[in-house]
């Protein structure tokens, strides 16, 4: 397992379009997933310990952002499930059910969406304002492979609240860290 960190936020970078199949049987685009005040596009998977460490808090925070702040989210799984069976589409369905995901969970089978976004790890967060302009490319919180203390600053939550209120993200952002995207052999 290779641990990587994300690049700094390229403010104003426009979200690439896509249409990906979700575990709910629907095809999802960024426009379909967009909330009234913004959209969080995140690259996650089932097997990564960095994702597992934040999953319950991620569900909590994204449900609150949706309900109280008009920020919606979409989760993209871009790993190669042939090499990582825990990341299979069937297992994605199960994880989404088990954790009651308040957002669509979609699969990027060709890995073209991860490449278009420049995603490097799981989790990798891209917070957009309602004009699809990038405003956040940082971490969830201080969690790594272990969950951060309960009183840890909610970096992603606070940043996306700021995007909801002002359509701008915070100037200071701490990169996300996680397992590398599991690319298919060329």
From TrEMBL:
PANTHER family: OS07G0260300 PROTEIN (PTHR43640), THIOREDOXIN-DEPENDENT PEROXIREDOXIN (PTHR43640:SF1). Coiled coil: none annotated. It comes from Thiobacillus denitrificans (strain ATCC 25259 / T1). InterPro entries: AhpC/TSA (IPR000866), PRX-like1 (IPR047262), Thioredoxin-like_sf (IPR036249), Thioredoxin_domain (IPR013766). GO terms for molecular function: antioxidant activity; oxidoreductase activity. SUPFAM superfamilies: Thioredoxin-like. It comes from the Bacteria. Residues 9-145 form the Thioredoxin domain. This is Thioredoxin domain-containing protein.
């Amino acid at each position: 397992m290779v641990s990587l960190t994300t690049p700094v936020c390229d403010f104003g970078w426009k979200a690439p379009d896509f249409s990906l199949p979700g575990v709910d049987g629907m095809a999802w685009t960024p426009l379909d997933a967009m909330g009234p005040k913004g959209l969080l596009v995140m690259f996650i998977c089932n097997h990564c310990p960095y994702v597992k460490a934040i999953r319950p808090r991620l569900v909590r925070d994204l449900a609150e952002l949706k309900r109280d702040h008009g920020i919606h989210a979409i989760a993209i799984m871009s790993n190669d499930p042939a090499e990582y069976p825990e990341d299979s589409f069937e297992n994605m369905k199960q994880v989404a059910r088990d954790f009651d995901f308040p957002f669509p969970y979609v699969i990027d089978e060709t890995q073209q969406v991860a490449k278009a976004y420049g995603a490097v790890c799981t989790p990798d967060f891209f917070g957009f304002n309602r004009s699809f302009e990038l405003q956040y490319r940082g971490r969830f919180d201080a969690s790594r492979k272990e969950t951060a203390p309960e009183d840890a600053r909610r970096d992603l939550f606070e940043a996306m609240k700021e995007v909801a209120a002002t359509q701008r993200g915070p100037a200071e952002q701490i990169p996300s860290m996680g397992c590398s995207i599991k690319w298919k052999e060329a």
